[in-house]
Amino acid sequence: MSFGRIEYLYLLLLIPFFAVVFLIQYKLKERFLSMKKLQRSFVSYSLDRRFFKRLFLLVSLSFLIISLSAPKFGVAMEKGVRRGREIYFLIDVSNSMNATDIKPSRLEATKQVIYKLLEKMSGDLVGVAVFAGRCEIICPLTDDYDAVSMFVDSVDTDIISMQGTDLGGAIKKVVKEGFPENDKGFKTIIVFSDGEDFGNSVENGVKVAKENNVILFSVGIGSKDGAPIPVKDLNGRVIGFKKDRDGRIVVTKLNPSVLIKVAKDTGGASFIVRSNLDIDPLIKNIQKLQRKKFEEKGFVRLKDRYYIPLSIGVLFLIGFLVL
Quick check: is 88 in a domain? Predict the structure, then answer.
């Protein structure tokens, strides 16, 4: 058994208080009549109409209070329909996402954006995939946003061993494996990347997305000035910066051109994350997306049983009024 408004049960503490008041009233009246030598008129007081009247009142109040607390017991299987969107966060985890031109780093800024997006979502199914030289779906579509946040928090640039930035292959994998089969509704992938070194497979990924009614949004993470790529040891400490073959430090810069194109070609929109993490335009665009019906296979809930104590309470209240 559970209670929808359990705080009302504290009112039951009033019942013994009233019972004590009635008992004191009885004792005082008994003493008064004894002093006046009228005990005979008070014989069997505890069994007369006045006793049961007060008893019925206390029982009635008890059950009415229990009814107010909304008791629930017994289970019922129900089917439900809700509306929402199907959205995948596709996160670039190549080494360049460790650059710190966006504080504290591009990857950490991406996580902060996703956390803010989750705060604005309701009823949507959300999944998480990461990509570098290949793609992995680390969280399938779910409406458990706490679980999504946990998976996002665990993302780092070591999660994919194969370096590179195969965006086209990542889009294709999420489209084919991330969304339900035979789903004709509109689906969404939000790509978070600095836009560097996408290779030649992007067009193929965009084609697959369009064929499957998948809209791509892109979020560019980084700055035009760029920053060096940190090199870390096994403990995560920065021990230097990535260098090219000539020994010069490599500076990674935001390259939004491909990100803009993939979003435009699929009917989505592109955004650039600045240091203030202003994502209101992204949120507004997502909220415009078509919602679809999700039929839940079934869920168990406890049945409302407030009417049982309510009925008993009303019956005793009627008895109180009749006596």
Answer: yes
pLDDT tens-digit profile of 129-153? 999 989 999 999 998 999 999 999 9
- Alpha helix ranges (H) inside the chain: 14-35, 49-68, 106-120, 145-153, 167-173, 202-211, 257-265, 280-287, 307-322
The pTM of this model reads 0.65
Together in a domain, 150 and 258: yes
Beta pairing partners, 241: 230
Residues 264 and 285 in one domain: yes
Mapping DSSP to helix (H, G, I), strand (E, B) and coil, where does residue 225 land? Answer: coil
DSSP 8-state symbol, 157? T
Can you say how many angstroms the Cα of residue 206 is from the centroid of all Cα atoms in its chain? 30
* DSSP sequence for 14-48: HHHHHHHHHHHHHHHHHHHHHHTT-GGGGTTGGGS
Residues 111 and 197 reside in one and the same domain: yes
| pLDDT digit string, tens, across residues 221-260 | 988 888 888 887 777 777 778 887 878 888 888 888 889 9
For the chain, how long is the longest CA-to-CA vector?
118
Considering only CA atoms, which of 59, 29, 63, 62 is closest in space to residue 46? 29
Domain hosting residue 164, numbered range: 81-297
Q: Partners of 125 in the beta sheet? A: 86
Pair 94, 18 in one domain = no
Task: Locate 184 and state its tokens.
Answer: 């004709």
HSE, CB side, 13 Å, CA atoms: give it for residue 242. 14
Which neighbouring-strand residues pair with 218?
A: 191, 270
The span from the CA of 91 to the CA of 111, in Å, is: 9
Q: How far apart are CA 190 and CA 157, in angstroms?
A: 18
